[in-house]
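Recap from last week: sequence in, structure out.
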Amino acid sequence: MPTRCGQKRDGFIKGQFVALRRVLGCLLLLCLALSHQSVRAEPGEPSPYRLSPGDRVAITLPLHPELNATGPIGPDGRFSLPMAGQVELGGLTVDEAQGAISAALHEARLVANARPSLAVEKFGGTVFVGGEVRNPGQVELTGPLNPLQAIISAGGLLGTARSKRIAVIRPTVSGPGNVYTMNVRSFVKTGDPQGNIVLHAGDIVFVPKSGIAEVNLWLDQHINGIIPDALHFNVNLGDGNNQTSAIVTP
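Predicted structure tokens:
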């Protein structure tokens, strides 16, 4: 039988671990609250789809059908117009491309005031979906695609996904890329227009881990591995509207 002295010593050690756990829990709660506030950002307004190499387009001139053209945009972003030569279309919106075609026809002295229409028959680019999805990787653009559709094409969300803060990263030619965020839950329930982002070729859809998954991973790596099993942390994060809470159970 353990002596009274041994019982007191064991009780003292356990009490010290409990106190340490409560202190660490308070610090963790504070850090979570501060970090949650620091990353809060309003998503910017995404730009419309821009043509990319590999897209197959159809150009129609109702008053000059002999100049109609259909074909892919080349790897260099150029499209070959009959009798007008190469026109740079890669990276342009549909409206901008129609203006560039009209200008090219005018410069070639074919049509003074052409009013071409352009339609994308087939999208030739890909987007990248990563993070907490079942099948991360490339998703082909077979038509206008929003982040939710891309995630579904990648097998859907994992149970550890943070569905309220999904990021769409749009690389730029120079400087850092543009980042937009969307709330998948809100988009599914209410059709939130901020979630209806038209993806461009080369976009990255990143699904981060939920707050509780990140915290539990951190606890397993840095705390739970060095204290007795009986004193392990159990942390829950609220998933309400921009609110974070943590509960540390004894």
